[in-house]
Amino acid sequence: MHAGESAIEAHALGMRYRRGWALKDCSFRLPAGRICGLVGPNGAGKTTLLSIAARVLEPTQGTLSVFGAAPGSADSGRTAFLAQDKPLFRRFTVAETLRLGRELNPGWDQRTAEDVVRAGDVPLDARIGSLSGGLRSRVALALALGKRPDLLLLDEPMADLDPVARQEVMGTLLADTAERGTTLLMSTHVLAELENVCDYLVVLSGGEVRLAGDVEELLSVHTVVTGAKEGEDLPASLAQHSLVESRVSGRQFTALIRSEGPAAGRWETDSPNLEELLIAYLRSPGAAPLITPTAQARAYDTRTVAA
Amino acid sequence: MIVEFRIDRRSGVPAFQQIVQQTKQALRLGVLVPGDRLPTAKSVAEVSAVNPNTTLKAYRELEREGLVEPRPGQGTFVRRTLARPSAGTDSPLYGELAAWVSRAAEAGLEREDVAALVASAMDKQYAAGPKTAATTTGSAGE
Known about the structure:
Chain A has 307 residues and is of the alpha/beta class.
């Protein structure tokens, strides 16, 4: 396995478009072999980040390395990028599209690509332009998996799939990672899609990294607290923990806290689920970002960058 | 494949726990017996869209409890069963329970009342055990 290898390391990454900064000072690390969700509201910078990782865009500031390789090095065969608009030639047939993949990619695996297409009952002689959005997504996915990438970048891969196709496509993706240890980074705003699928998470909002790390670790350091109000507010003793979000209704309060030590008190505690955690962070732009140790960009890479 | 895991994404129970619980349930019911191979992480991923690391984590947990063993290059195999003669639906214990449930129904208790009573009695008896989700576990073998 990849002992401690990084699939992605971003250092102080920034991207400015004419309308302003899409990414600001983003630093994080994605260990190899993980299945990582990239989450955030529309306009958070998800597509920009994926495009930089895919070397489609060049960042305004900072660097992003893929498997330790700096941008510009000739090691692009390890990454595949499935963009949201799934760019394919509409006049090509499915078979011709796969043939193009074979011609353009030295490590091409025709069987894998054909399996993905066949599993969705996509006729090989159909023209891309005649396919439904779901089937087109499948062909695009077949192209991406046929490259046998070590890092697969997916921008909203499930957006135009029906629930059955979603489950199938996700199953295909996960089976591929099981077999080959592929690192997956996929953006989504369907939070339910992440549960049981992702074991790693990067949450972006307003172009900044709000949360990054192992899902279990992120969940385990947070606690949902429910109890009776004290006066008009939260109990004062709760203040020793850092508060992510709180709501007061009637006589009751609910808060999501990052627990600093045991969170015992006259209230009930529960562990949050992934969706609760994400929504709390997305709703509270003021909460301090949390990047767990495994998700911190490493120091030695800074040296490489400086050299 | 001998068993297929049924992962409920809305139950709030983590998938790895569901896999552990359903495997144990299958061991208890005798659906899985020593020597059986558990589904590979790849096939669970393919069928149920579950992260393969999750399945492997569940199998490690079952291995720690001595229920299964990994054989390199072949998969994960059942080592011992959890089926107990006294825990079957033909046992005297089951007969007593069924009789009690029907008395409870005669006394006007609803299904939820009975479940709450049983859960509370079980909590009292097995207080030291881990938090189980008895009400949300489904059947394991299909």
